[in-house]
Amino acid sequence: MINLKNKKPNILVIGDLMIDHYLWGSCERISPEAPVPVINIQKENQALGGAGNVLNNLKTFGAKVSVISVLGNDSIASELKEMLENIDIQTNMLIEEENRKTTKKSRLIASQQQVLRYDKESTQNISDESASKILEFLTKNISKYDVLLLSDYGKGVLTKKLTQEIISISNENKVKVFVDPKGNDYDKYKNAYAITPNKKEAIEATNIDIKDDSTLEKAIKELKTNYQLDLALITLSESGIAIYDDKLRIKPTVAKEVYDVTGAGDTVIASIAFAIANGLDIDKAVEFANLAAGVVVSKIGSATASMDEIYEYESSLHKSNSFSNIKNIDEIKAISKRLINQKKKIVFTNGCFDILHAGHVKYLEEAKSYGDILILGLNSDDSVRRLKGSNRPINNQEDRAYLLAALDAVDFVVIFNEETPYELIKLIQPDLLVKGGDYIGKTVVGKDIAKEVKLVEFVENKSTTKIIQRILNNAEND
């Protein structure tokens, strides 16, 4: 990939700004007043949403970013402006309208499950006066920008008339316009440089059921032709991104693990616009977008991808995938939740696995045979020392984790620092716990959490202790 670090194109975003507000809590009872859950709120946070998430992505890439939007004259607008100023984005072109509500989406989440969402917003078209102010600013300043990005969330800022005038002014000044569309009337985006609907949006806009490459090509070609675009793009979720200028090609996704797709569409259009502004062609720009999206969907919640993260991620794709199977606590929590939702049978085992030998491998192969996914909890170096003495482990935790992650039987390795893996088991919620045969008659940690416990006999005469003893004996004989 061409080096885009330290590149700072000047990009203008026009669209619907909003705040994404989250209330996190737990539910342990039903209200006596009505058959509804009572949520005990434990945490609250908020983030830039809508076009604000696009701005956040562009700033993280390193771009110089400006924004035009219309807000209400209310406290939410003040909050939003402060959030923008905190990431060094000027708010002088945020127009306020009386009797308009700035959009704030509040989500109530209990035990990682969204229970309720309530919105405060206005969705009527902005006034002619506000539209005139936008066009006046754009006409005076359009020459400053490398690209223009329209982020349409259907909240009334990008009216059909205004959108067409914005595109016209930009085209006259040879500034490319990228559009993240909304609704099914794409006439408002006619003559833009490119649009980036997802598959569902493209189906609604063209009335073509996209179910294979043939129907995909028909739909994307219709978008480009009907709306006189330079090129059309369709995001295809896990299948990648389709491009059409004079021919169709599909750039496959490069995501290794998908934890959350929230905001991935914003990342895609932001990264494509950023790459084009830096002189990349569309194919390279989409490849960059796929890398950025691969980073973002590996995180929880709306997220951004820094250039360092993107380059590190790209580099990891060309290495053995063993490193990708080693997860931290937050990652394994998200993976476990996804696996449970997919109704996969999760098997968990744990241990020190200091010097990996055939006995370990056979044990792990049998453990994996009991389910769909084997997650291995690996004692950290400190944990091993507490259990086995100061002269252990022989191999450090990074080496032990890598060797285990390279085994076909092991799907994920997660290092824990406690003497027992109880908290890790509670987080993973496995269907089955597997321990060695030496646990017969002993208490298995986590048996109160898992649905089942299985004990697997060790291979006779195969142990790390015996290997170490043989090495010491040979050294003495030498």
Automatic annotation (TrEMBL):
Keyword Transferase assigned: yes
Stretches the record annotates as Cytidylyltransferase: 348-478
GO MF annotations in UniProt: ATP binding; heptose 7-phosphate kinase activity; heptose-1-phosphate adenylyltransferase activity; phosphotransferase activity, alcohol group as acceptor
Limits of the Cytidyltransferase-like domain: 348-463
Pathway recorded for this protein: Nucleotide-sugar biosynthesis; ADP-L-glycero-beta-D-manno-heptose biosynthesis; ADP-L-glycero-beta-D-manno-heptose from D-glycero-beta-D-manno-heptose 7-phosphate: step 3/4; Nucleotide-sugar biosynthesis; ADP-L-glycero-beta-D-manno-heptose biosynthesis; ADP-L-glycero-beta-D-manno-heptose from D-glycero-beta-D-manno-heptose 7-phosphate: step 1/4
Tree of life domain: Bacteria
UniProt keyword Signal, yes or no: no
Domain Carbohydrate kinase PfkB: 10-305
Gene3D superfamilies in alphabetical order: 3.40.1190.20, HUPs (3.40.50.620)
Keywords recorded for this protein, A-Z: ATP-binding, Carbohydrate metabolism, Kinase, Multifunctional enzyme, Nucleotide-binding, Nucleotidyltransferase, Transferase
Positions of the catalytic residues: D266
GO aspect biological process, one term: ADP-L-glycero-beta-D-manno-heptose biosynthetic process
Residues annotated as binding ATP: N198, K199, K200, E201
Catalytic activity as recorded in UniProt: D-glycero-beta-D-manno-heptose 7-phosphate + ATP = D-glycero-beta-D-manno-heptose 1,7-bisphosphate + ADP + H(+); D-glycero-beta-D-manno-heptose 1-phosphate + ATP + H(+) = ADP-D-glycero-beta-D-manno-heptose + diphosphate
UniProt region (Ribokinase), positions on chain: 1-320
Matching InterPro entries: Bifunc_HldE, Cyt_trans-like, PfkB_dom, RfaE_dom_I, RfaE_dom_II, Ribokinase-like, Rossmann-like_a/b/a_fold
Cellular component, GO annotation: cytosol
Enzyme Commission number(s): 2.7.1.167, 2.7.7.70
General function of this protein: Catalyzes the ADP transfer from ATP to D-glycero-beta-D-manno-heptose 1-phosphate, yielding ADP-D-glycero-beta-D-manno-heptose.
Subunit record text: Homodimer.
Family per record: In the N-terminal section; belongs to the carbohydrate kinase PfkB family.
Name of this chain's protein: Bifunctional protein HldE
